[in-house]
Specification:
Layout: H1 2-6, E1 8-13, H2 16-20, E2 21-31, H3 35-42, E3 46-47, E4 52-56, E5 59-63, E6 66-67, E7 84-87, H4 90-103, E8 106-115, E9 118-128, H5 131-154
Antiparallel strand pairs: 1-8, 2-7, 2-9, 3-6, 4-5, 5-7, 8-9
């Protein structure tokens, strides 16, 4: 049981982010949830696609995260797409706010996981890719795959 508490248990990943953005920096934050949302997360009922984070009044707010309503939750279920507060230090929030304003970066949730029984969100500071960047990434990935395949058949 102690091994389970110390490790990370992945709940969901946003795979589309690495295709659409360059991830400049990743930051681990907590997230404020209610009990039925946590139970729904344990059942795997979350979708990070089309989600992002904003800074409003000095607070990090995650928007667009869809947490399915818990089936036995009845009146305690909240709106699946409600904005949720992300928990980070004030200095980190200020620094991220400056990066967003000055350099035009975007905050995007990369993954959500349990760490020592608490829900954590890995938030990425991202810069958008242009179409030619996406093509270059795809070409590099294909070239690496071809090289790996050639090495494997050569052995």
């Amino acid at each position: 049981m102690a091994e389970e508490k110390s490790g990370k248990k992945l709940i969901a990943q946003n795979r589309e982010v690495r295709h659409e953005y360059f991830v400049v920096e990743a930051l681990e934050t907590g997230i404020a949830l209610v009990g039925t949302e946590v139970k729904s997360l344990r059942a795997g009922g979350v979708n990070l696609k089309d989600s992002w984070a904003d800074i409003e009044d000095g607070e990090l707010i995650a928007k667009g995260i869809h947490i399915s309503p818990y089936e036995q939750g009845n009146i305690f279920n909240k709106d699946p797409r409600r904005p949720r507060k992300l928990l980070a230090h004030k200095a980190e929030i200020r620094r991220l706010g400056q990066q967003i304003k000055l350099q035009g970066y975007t905050l995007v949730p990369l993954s959500m996981y349990f760490k020592q029984g608490r829900v954590k969100v890995e938030l990425g500071l991202c810069k958008g890719k242009k179409l030619y960047d996406k093509r270059a990434s795809a070409a590099a990935r294909d070239a690496k795959r071809d090289i790996d395949r050639a090495l494997k058949t050569q052995r």
